[in-house]
Amino acid sequence: MKHRNIMILGTGSNVGKSIITAGLCRIFKQDGYKVSPFKSQNMALNSYITKDGKEMGRAQVVQAEAAGVEPEVYMNPILLKPTTDRKSQVIVNGTVLRNMEAREYFAYKHNLKEEIMKAYNFIKENYEISVLEGAGSPAEINLKEDDIVNTGMAEMADSPVILAGDIDRGGVFASLYGTVMLLEESERKRIKGIIINKFRGDVSLLDSGIKMLEEMLNIPVLGVIPYVKLDIEEEDSLGIKSFNIKKDSKIRISVIKLKHISNFTDMNALDQHSDINIKYVTKASELGDEDMIIIPGSKNTIEDMKDLSDRGISEKILRSAKNGTVIFGICGGFQILGQKIKDPDNVESGIKEIAGLGLLDMETVMFRDKTTIQYDGKLSNTAGILDGADGINVKGYEIHQGKSIVNSGKENVVLGNEAEVKGAVKGNIIGTYLHGIFDNSEFTSFLLNKIRTGKGFDEVGEHFDFQQFKEKEYDKLADVLRNNLNISEIYRIMDGE
Q1: Mean pLDDT, the chain, as a whole number?
Q2: What domains lie within the chain, and their CATH numbers?
Q3: Is 25 one of the catalytic residues?
Q4: Do residues 137 and 180 touch, judged by C-beta distance below 8 A?
């Protein structure tokens, strides 16, 4: 089986590399090929746990879904999860190596080339096409030494490159030209095409600029992708979506935007329900009129708990809880709901212990070992806002340091058991370790209907199938790319023509 590849680089972060990669994966899948995404190094707090308990970036999960294949850690062998402004947890082949300062990692990263190539060669041997994605910009000349994710990766994989620029932020011709000209001659030769992304308006207005750019660089522009709203996950916190404001909303949900928020995509499925409004909250003054408050995942739970107290948000949450508002904690947010969070070995923070919100009779102790598993089970022992939900099946995945213990008989453990709690409820307070909890349509519909009827509204019979919805969005994305890019030329580029 002959393997073909193509790599998408960008003029900067958030120009659309991940989405274009996902779209090409979908097109190649539609055309009958077995295709895999690949990003050698990803930096993101949005991650996912594979079936074998390995951790990888969610951007490559989205791309794998678009390609119609199971997400596997070889699609993203290096994952960096920032813990502070200067330090990240380094995850290699799905397992934690250690925390490193930025300078330490920069000096160390060349040691990872072997692991990267093992992962890529597996794809090369088992897939017909690979679509590689870079990170940030390849023209960061201060970071090019021992590059393992942009032009360095293109060389290691011997891949042709398409360079994408974002016209919506302005200066696209300058950024495209400047990026190419800052590359070495050998790197420039790999760039076989250019894509202009996120265009609004009459595309013919770009014709003269495109012609001049092609003449200056001797690289063809393969197309101009219009600015299109698609409900496809973004890679990082820059992409925290603006949720739709619905005129007929019956349920208002506030999501606390933690300083170290992770896996914010947990909320995406909620927004597809027709009568729900969601907003992200950064100030205590923004709370008070919602039906449910969600405290999401965190990469540094203790620091985020301290920040909630310092900003007066914790006091506002407690007041809302007392008034009957549903408080829902996910992963780090679940830990925050308890009485105490302890970190005796300073795994996440320099603070060894902090009081939580005290809404659940539970304590959490941080351990060096990280829990990374998928979970599939049924709710039981339900009470409070979840009363009557026994037997509902839920799936999700866990990514967390620490273990939580619920005091016996004080709380209803609805997932797992008191020795290994995965979900608990007390009145209007719900917590779980499961990311992706709202992707479970039966569970989500049950909870939302409880809130609706509590406000005097009728139940809604919709059971939103989030997976089916995503499949339709991937097809829409493929249509947009087919209609605006020279796909036949991309095939020729991959064939070396």
Answers
A1: 92
A2: 4-232+471-494 (3.40.50.300), 251-456 (3.40.50.880)
A3: no
A4: no
